[in-house]
Amino acid sequence: MTDVAISGRFYYQGRFRDLTVGVTNGIISEIKKNLKAQVHYSVEGGILPGSTDTHVHFRDPGETAKEDFSTGSAAAVYGGTTTVLDMPNNRLPIVDYDRFYDKKAAIRGRSYCDYGLYSLFTGGNAQVLSKESIALKIYLGGSTNSTGLASIPQDQISKLREEGFRLVFHAESDECLDRNRREVHSLADHDLSRPEACEKMAVDYVASLKYPDKTVTHISSMASLADIKSRDFKIEATPHHLLLNEAMGLGPKGKVNPPLRSKDTQLSLLEAYAGGRIDVVSSDHAPHTEEDKDGFEYAKSGIIGVETRLPLMLALVKKGIVPMEVFYRTVIENPPANFGIKKGKLEIGYVADFFSVKLSEMQKINENRLHSKNSFSPFDGFDAVFPENVFIRGSPALENGELLSDRQGLFLNDIKGARNA
Ligand code: DOR
Ligand code: ZN
Hints:
Elements: E1 4-12, E2 15-24, E3 27-32, E4 39-49, E5 51-56, H1 69-78, E6 81-86, H2 97-107, E7 114-117, E8 119-120, E9 136-139, H3 154-163, E10 167-170, H4 174-180, H5 187-193, H6 196-208, E11 214-217, E12 233-237, H7 239-243, H8 263-274, E13 280-281, H9 309-318, H10 324-337, E14 354-357, E15 363-364, E16 383-384, E17 389-392, E18 395-399, E19 402-403
Parallel strand pairs: 1-4, 5-6, 6-7, 8-9, 9-10, 10-11, 11-12, 12-13
Antiparallel strand pairs: 1-2, 2-3, 4-14, 14-17, 15-16, 17-18, 18-19
The structure holds (4S)-2,6-dioxohexahydropyrimidine-4-carboxylic acid and zinc ion.
(4S)-2,6-dioxohexahydropyrimidine-4-carboxylic acid (DOR) is lined by residues 57, 89, 143-144, 170, 256-257, 286, 301-302.
């Protein structure tokens, strides 16, 4: 017997249709006009599959004054995100089994949304990485809690391939960053100190690696999109590189790696995104405390975004700047598909995560009302469309804009049917 039925206007096969979706053990089991179930929810507004944010830094364990898994995952759910993939640059980086399982144990029972965990590849640790890692992060240039890896030895690449790890690259070339190092007092200086050329060098290096299913995350410049059709990797971009630029007077709030670029670059990137040239929008949610962000030169790099990513992108759809199909592919469907997660599709056998939204109800983001531990945001005042209801595996997680108290988030590998075989 179907446990749960959810009725409403679902986005299905390219348009909104009146449907009832049956859920059994958290998995979509029926898609019909009508059906009976023990529990029935009728939902207003448009309904889409819950989103996966493939790039967040929840800092837990180790730096929980910046964020922790419960505040970060709560913020995710408020923004329609039902799954997060958490980065490994914790204060003690996730470089081996012990660190991985310590982190997994520390998080257990504390997350409002489902999650996968990355491990950090440091060059020689292929043998000691947990097979449960959702992917490996590779920093080609140094950033918070991580040093850059200039190149990856061929025997290590072969080893990683044998083990079947997915690779996600932070694409800034360390050698190029070294050459451009300088004092930074403004976002324009920060851009000069980590110029687009460093990203291009690293992207070209990734393209040269004979390795399947690679991802380059948070690209910030047009050169990184050159030859993309012939390159076998996936490109992720962030809302901040699509919507913010160094001329907006954001100061340390806008300091991030890779840096915000010129207005021209930002507008070109947004146009390329709307034209379908970018595969995924991930947030690179990277919280810091107010003290961390004090003064420009020594301010830490990173911008929060797990709660605002999807709402900002939906506002672009509402305004006609981004086609609905592009939003659907880059925010809903591709992110889990790229990591072998059976979410992001209204299809029998997929996990029953959904959010509902009224596109007519655009709001201004108010940083004081976001749910991260340090909620200051360069998107304060930006237009956004926030979800009203969120379901995770068929259970309500957000109701009429209010988070329910159950911390029902699970580690992805522990959810039957959530990973591709
Ligand atoms: O700005 C950034 N902040 N870029 C990164 O690569 C890391 C991140 C962080 O963890 O703070
Ligand atoms: Zn990051």
